[in-house]
Amino acid sequence: MGVYLSTPKTEKFSEDGENIKVRYGLSSMQGWRATMEDAHAAFPDLDGSTSFFGVYDGHGGKVVAKFCAKFLHQQVLKSEAYSAGDLSTALQKSFFRMDEMMRGQRGWRELAILGDKINKFTGMIEGLIWSPRSGYGNGHEDDWAFEEGPHSDFSGPTSGCTACVAVIKGNQLLVANAGDSRCVISRKGQAYNLSRDHKPELDAEKERIIRAGGFIHAGRVNGSLNLARAIGDMEFKQNKFLPAEKQIVTANPDINTVELCDDDDFLVLACDGIWDCMSSQQLVDFIHEQLSRETKLSAVCERVMDRCLAPSTAGGEGCDNMTMILVQFKKPMQPNVRASTDVEPSPSEANDSKPEPEPEQTESS
Questions:
Q1: What is the pTM of this model?
Q2: Tens of pLDDT along 282-299?
Q3: Domains of the chain, with CATH numbers?
Q4: CA–CA separation, 333 vs 314, rounded Å?
Q5: Is residue 228 a contact partner of residue 246, using CB atoms and an 8 Å limit?
Q6: In sequence order, what DSSP letters do the residues of 298-310 get, joined into one string?
Q7: What distance in Å separates the CA atoms of residue 105 and residue 155, rounded to the nearest whole number?
Q8: Burial 347-364 (b: 16+ CB within 10 A, else e)
Q9: Which tens digit of pLDDT belongs to each residue from 113-147?
Q10: Which helix (H) or strand (E) segment is 165 a member of?
Q11: Rg (CA), the chain
């Protein structure tokens, strides 16, 4: 449920940018929540040929979402698989890498910094007078060498976050998702879901949870977490006899690959604070309506949030943090045949808030 404020914080952080292939706008708003736990990343020029966009919805704290926003795209870019042109493997490894990097002394220190536990006057981590052996801020953060210190046995954060990212390279679009943030593309005005909401009651998720020694109670993993996949949440990843992808909760992302074409209008990445209030098709329709009279994409995102914000906390929906990235494709694009993949995007029905990324439609839940 979370703790709510007496009045919502409606101030928004917004941003716009573009390159020769895309325009983007984004916005985030704390809303009724007592704290802001969302984070995002937008790099239209991750390198000379690649754009990267991601939303990270934190739970139990903000630090894991902020950690992913700072480091996940860096790990994609430096991956050997990325250099070899295997974007799917680069994305999967980068999701798992977040969990690895948050362990140990270096992970603890980075999370402490992102959690604002660094004394701004002394530069030291609050509650601990300690100087790392490997110099901090030496320009080699991605080397991530093992670091000795009083938290060398740190097993990682108990908080976590969802991660939904979109990578555009040429006319290829890859979407990687773990959790219930969602990516949707508008193709000739039709909403197509490019990600799956990883809820514990899904058969594949339930099977993995139980096999790993967990259980589901009241729709929550071990009666606690209402997600089946997430980065962080290390208390659910303690089975030493199982690989990372088979833990009770896993960071293993679903990855969907499509070829972009001239029929594609825009792409939306948003946390569940948006999807709790609007279905995929409803949001696509609303955006098309707004684009007929508004050219600034961040302003469109802001209007979505104003529409979703609840008048009170009585109902629950519309009370969450909200983050949304809108990416508009510049026309014309070279026509392409859709890439052959095992998973293809699916049109979402107007009232389906938890659609699956197969051609067949799932029942609303």
A1: 0.87
A2: 999 999 999 999 999 999
A3: 10-127+156-336+343-347 (3.60.40.10)
A4: 46
A5: no
A6: HHHHHHHHHHHS-
A7: 10
A8: ebbeebbbbbbeeeebee
A9: 998 665 545 444 544 443 333 333 334 445 677 88
A10: strand 163-169
A11: 20
